[in-house]
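User: Fold this, then the next.

Assistant: Folding the first:
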Amino acid sequence: MHEIEPPLDDDEASAAPLVTTGKRRRPELTPAQRALGLLVRREHSRKELTRKLTARGVEADDAEAAVARMTAEGWQDDARFAELLVRSRASNGYGPLRIRAELGIHGLDRDIVTAAMDAYDGDWTENARDLARRRFPGRLDDRAIQRKAADFLLRRGFSGDQVRAAVRLDDDD
């Protein structure tokens, strides 16, 4: 069914160029509307949102203004983005070193990164142990498999202490 759009005022009609899509003509989206469209799909950092807007043809100043507006209105929040990214990556089997590096790529403030990492309520060592057991089920008694598991966990971003604890034969060590 077709949506009925309210008629544009003369000022709005002259300010918004029309875009042709099939049979209908509709006004081109403003930078704020584009930013909001991206944010309703998933969280974005300020840096990422600005980059995506400029990649879609929005002028840099307009993109920064739109992102500032989204932040002021609570649609975009770097702290919320960081916490969600930490939980998401941890649940996908990544360790704290890799997650912290990814947060740095997003241009987040050091305090936000630290707060997000501290807010994570999981146990990194237990995450590493579970991942090693799932990836190498019942085979962690072999030294060669332990080395493979350790290499795998290190590549996933776990610290040396977490890796050593994860591949030990005796959980009480």
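Now the next one, as you asked:
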Amino acid sequence: MVMRAFMTVLFAALGSAGLGADVALMSLTGEWRGTGIIRSEPDKPQQEGRCRMNATPLVLGREVRLKGRCATQQGSSSLTMQFVLHEGGVIAGAVASPSLPETLQFIGRVEGSVTRLKTRENVDLDGTSGIVDLSINSLDRDHFDLVEWFHPANGADPIELVRMNFAHKEEEG
């Protein structure tokens, strides 16, 4: 079970790279690389992680699909996300991965250079129920930061699951 929580929301972040007033999320294309930390489960320590993603617009300006693979020392897993932009800056999405028990549904909003998403319903991460939220801060058209938190339904303190920095592949040294 590699990076289950991270994969739940990762593609949401990728979709937001380059976000500005024009919601570049929906026109994101090409390959992206991420490095940072990933916590595979809420009760496990964070580890170094890497991701490779490919973004493809399906309906220019309205829908994008993201596919890729993320890895830590524990292993790797593939994932697919698809996002649709609705009126008023509302974004709906779904995430599927062999490491997830089901396809997860997300809802969010674009707020300037930041996209905020959360699961529509509580998710179960290794026996703990809660909401996953994600914040993606677009630094420029070729870089963004992604931070993901798990908020247990029992009121326990939020747990940081992911903190990653992404760059468009062409921008890598």
